Amino acid sequence: MLAYTLTRLVYLALVLAVMSVLVFLVTQAMPGDVASMIAGQFASKEVVDAIAVKLGLDQPLIVQYGHWAAGILRGDLGRSLVLEQPIAPILLEALGRSLVLAVVALAVVAVVGIGLGVLAAVRRGKLTDQLVSGVSYLGIAVPDFFWAIVLVLVFGSYLKLLPTGGYAPITDGFLPWASHLVLPVVTLVLMLLARIARLTRSSMIDVLQTNYVKFARAKGMPESVVILRHALKNALLPTITVLAIDFGLILGGVVVIETIFSYPGMGRLLLFAIQRHDLPLIQATILIVSAAYCLANLTADLLYAFVNPKIRHGMRAS
Predict the structure, then answer these.
(1) For the chain, what is the mean pLDDT?
(2) Domain ABC transmembrane type-1, which positions (predicted)?
């Protein structure tokens, strides 16, 4: 398992190196001149050129990338051109908030979604299966922003039970902190739950038809042991991958949800940086989100190898 983990870490480092080059090149190709935006609309050419020299924008791209990559390796993500602050503390604060959303939402999705999927598979063709399948189709068909708007109108505007947006640090108390998380978390759960439930149901149905499950039943094992110990362990393999991808999605890809609820996470920070053409902040945010995706997939690979030893044995053989 250690050799497999080290191999995956090497692949992760290579992917991140390639991603850093792509992020740098794509952001450099964005329209607009950073020096002109900083100097202002009525600044003279001399002022714009002086700012460009100060920021190193007059140097070749390969030199600019070298300075940027070297700073990242030292833990220096640069300074925000708009906020005029170091980027690292800004990113850490936004990342921490997005992590809270991701962990809480995925914990609920994993427990409820896998439970519903297993229940539907075990009771295939019956009323329970039809209800779970019907709700899943509805969840997949309805866009995520629709759930957000409905929750805001019902629980925020009409019932006035929960805040409709913003964020309260936990230092303000557990209840204010939790109350600001409820609506975004429920929206994410509704957005992701249907896919996890249907995927688990499909995988579980396939596994329940395998010979080793039939053999376990023929030996007279209790149905709960057959389901939980023999079938579920193998049926969870594709679900683990999707949950890992969803984790990376929540960290940086739910701009609409964070905007509707005015939640100051990574998605909203990236939108802020793009709207103001804050190049260093855009680069750092995209790179951190990309790293989160890679780490989530690495975690999925390791869980795969832990659940299914054939994977790491195959890796060792190759």
Answers:
(1) 83
(2) 95-304
